[in-house]
Amino acid sequence: MAYGSKVLDHYENPRNVGSFDKADPTIGTGMVGAPACGDVMKLQIRVNDQGVIEEARFKTYGCGSAIASSSLLTEWVKGKTLEEAGQIKNTDIAEELALPPVKIHCSVLAEDAIKAAIADYRKKTGKDENVNAA
Ligand code: FES
Ligand code: FES
């Protein structure tokens, strides 16, 4: 099965690979695994005091679609509020990358990872209540 060109682009030139210091209070870390295949994705966001994501980094131990999904996600969340980033759906990622049905769970991993990173940041900062300033 051939990968689509957008998947290949992100797979061969992944954006924002790396990690931030987990202990930094401006960083939210999401670490999730895919039960279907055992792959693991770590996604981190750096958030400013307006609740806007300034940067994201990822490390993914997984297939090309999982790497491409996380790479795309780090680009999408940049400049978004936590609220907005939390609304990104795996189906948006799958559609953008034209993932075939057997690879949909790879994009689910990315959605789970950003949600986990946001939850971690909120928990750390105790900002659960006041991030919805829309
Ligand atoms: Fe490992 Fe799909 S089987 S990423
Ligand atoms: Fe499992 Fe891609 S994350 S096959």
Sequence-ordered SSE layout with sheet pairings:
Layout (H helix, E strand, L loop, with lengths): L4 H8 L14 E7 L6 E8 L5 E9 L2 H14 L4 H4 L4 H8 L6 H22 L9
Antiparallel strand pairs: 1-2, 2-3
The structure holds FE2/S2 (inorganic) cluster (FES) (2 copies).
One FE2/S2 (inorganic) cluster binds next to loops.
Could you list some keywords that capture this structure?
binds FE2/S2 (inorganic) cluster; Sufe protein. Chain: A; three-stranded antiparallel β-sheet; 134 residues; globular; 42% helix; 5 helices; alpha+beta
Describe this structure in a few short sentences.
This protein is of the alpha+beta class and 134 residues long.
Helical amount: 40-55%
Looking at the structure, the CATH topology is: Sufe protein. Chain: A
Segments where pLDDT lies below 50 for 5+ residues?
none
* Total domains: 1
Radius of gyration: 14 Å
Percent of sequence in beta strands: 15-25%
Counted beta strands: 3
Shape: globular
What's the mean pLDDT score?
A: 92
Number of helices: 5
The ligands found in this model are:
FE2/S2 (inorganic) cluster
Class from secondary-structure proportions = alpha+beta
Family: Belongs to the NifU family.
Protein name: Iron-sulfur cluster assembly scaffold protein IscU
GO molecular function, one term: iron ion binding
Pfam families: NifU_N (PF01592)
Explain what you see.
The chain has 134 residues and is α+β, with helices and mostly antiparallel strands. It has one domain (5-125): Sufe protein. Chain: A (Alpha-Beta Complex), CATH 3.90.1010.10. The protein has 5 helices and 3 strands, in the order H-E-E-E-H-H-H-H. A 3-stranded antiparallel β-sheet has the order 1-2-3. The longest helix has 22 residues, at 104-125. The protein is globular. The protein starts with a helix and ends in a 9-residue tail after the last helix. The mean pLDDT is 92. The structure holds FE2/S2 (inorganic) cluster (2 copies). Residues 37, 39, 62-63, 66 line the site of one FE2/S2 (inorganic) cluster (FES).
